[in-house]
């Protein structure tokens, strides 16, 4: 091996070791925020980190500070995060040590990943899927500028995992897709034999390499990750193969854990193998390898001294760095969108009236025609079916199986892969088949999608659309009828739409596509085809191709003028509730007394339109399809009451489904469960009579 590689590798190991020792020596100063170090893992991390290029993407994990040093980061950079300083280059003091996110032109690209164990495998695999798509479509990655020498080589993705995380179900989803699609990704599993206090004998039936054998097409090798030369040479071969053959690998690296699990969970509390672990320390092994390759004791000591001096100096500087200011809390939750005004023709003169599902279908078709970075995937959206509601019909035939394709039944992968697809500059539109099945995807939506922009300090917003058919009708039963908006609206960092008609859905779809942030569109399946009595209003004259409806602007569907001695009411609603409210006001002959606000988007919420109307009418009813207890609607009612209290003539009321655990299959029970025009009429009369 070349001497410069050995020297650079040893300097990196010494630096990582010196950092771990400094943190321990200054425990009271640095333990305010929890941290973990790479001690024992340095050799494999350095061997890998030294070989990646600026166009490569990596998902290091919380013990990978040696890998980050090998990418070219300085101890000072990592210490700013250790101490949660304002100039922390990854997150601005928002997240833990060695939770990196990096977008420097001259370094490996590192999208944000959370602390949720193993969750990074799906976004990382999404990056590899995006790389593959870009290559097939002959597209450039807009987030990578190739300027350094040698960067013409094919990019790869690296996902770093601990051995314990491989037991997670979401790891299986990532491995399955990587093997199925033959993606250019390297899964590095650092196996130190421990979870926290549970060891491998207690928690794993096999190691990661043995597990990977079950995924045909995912080649796996096991190596001694504590030997730098062996690790470097093995990784070199694997990376060369991935760059050339564009297929996935798993490297299972056996390493000792020579420091605490984290600064808050001390090894002496439970470890019974410390002597054996210390006998496998990679540090003396590489030191001897340098001596065997022509370095003198003096040379080696100079490298060690240089590392310690650098670490001590950087620590002194980091301690003096500025802390975040209170105002820093409120930045980078979203990227500002340029879509602020309604544009295009909502009702073209020669337009044809179409059902709601076709408005969405045509919107996606128009978007896909505009640019090849738009693609659609999910369960059953491919060419054979085109979606269970025909919401993707003909798209695969028009744009090809690489742009419109089926996924396995993997809601977590569908949602979380958009993080990676967005990180390589793509614009994914994905679908969860029914709202009832969104639950496996919530881990990714919450931990990865929604927080990426905020915790990367604005570097990695996730631009994606998640379509979710929702709501009850036609005896869908307990697994195809649920409303979930109260759960979704409690996830900060995403935008949420819930349109009531086709024109709104098309305009919102276009706005969501051009928004640099994640958008969830809840689409009531009972409105798709207007088969439910009283939902003809969900059909629309199809808007023009360039029609865009900004998120966060409610529609004053039915406006009234305040009259003396006449009881008036504001109904605030969305989705199917719009049709119940409109029909109820008409059947009661009260359209001149009832103002109806169609929210259209649940976040951002058009509070100005709501409060202005309620202050005018003096009474308010919030209509939802969800059970009303602990719901978005009940929270909104509380906010309206708080803001408009002195203008109110009655309590703000809500109506929703009965507060039962599920919507029954039997049609009589279903109708008893959910609201209706008749039930809304009764509630209107109650509040007007108050």
Provide key terms for this protein.
alpha/beta, seven-stranded mixed sheet, 26 helices, 19 strands, 13% strand
Can you describe this structure?
With 690 residues, this protein is an alpha/beta fold. The chain is 39% helix and 13% strand. It has 26 helices and 19 strands. Strands 8-7-9-10-12-11-17 form a seven-stranded mixed sheet, with helices on both faces. A five-stranded parallel sheet has the order 1-2-3-5-4, with helices on both faces. Strands 14-16-15-18-19 form a five-stranded mixed sheet, sandwiched between helices. Strand 18, helix 24 (632-644) and strand 19 (653-657) form a beta-alpha-beta unit. Helix 6 runs parallel beside helix 7 (169-181). It is elongated. The N and C termini lie far apart (86 Å).
Major sheet: arrangement of strands: 8-7-9-10-12-11-17
Low-confidence stretches: none
Q: Give Rg in angstroms.
A: 28 Å
Helix/strand/pairing category: alpha/beta
Shape designation: elongated
- Indicate the mean pLDDT: 95
Kindly estimate the percentage of residues that lie in beta strands according to DSSP: 5-15%
Continuous helix count: 26
Topology:
Layout (H helix, E strand, L loop, with lengths): L2 H23 L1 H4 L11 H8 L7 E3 L5 H6 L4 H8 L38 H17 L19 E6 L6 H13 L3 E7 L8 H4 L4 H5 L6 E6 L3 H18 L3 E6 L19 H5 L3 H11 L4 H24 L32 E2 L1 H15 L3 E5 L16 H5 L4 E3 L4 H13 L3 E5 L7 H11 L2 H4 L9 E6 L14 H4 L6 E3 L4 H13 L4 E6 H4 L11 E2 L13 E4 L10 E5 L2 H12 L6 E5 L2 E3 L3 H11 L2 E8 L4 H13 L8 E5 L9 H7 L3 H12 L2
Parallel strand pairs: 1-2, 2-3, 3-5, 4-5, 7-8, 7-9, 9-10, 10-12, 11-12, 15-16, 15-18, 18-19
Antiparallel strand pairs: 6-13, 11-17, 14-16
Helix pairs in contact: 1-3, 1-12, 1-13, 3-10, 5-13, 6-7, 6-16, 14-20, 16-17, 22-26
